[in-house]
Amino acid sequence: MTHYDDTQDVSMRPRGYNPADQDTVIARHLQIKATMERHKDALLDKLQDPTLTPEERSRIEAAKNEVRQDISAIRVWGSTEDYERMRRKYDRTKHRQF
Question: Is residue 87 a contact partner of residue 27, using CB atoms and an 8 Å limit?
Answer without folding.
Answer: no
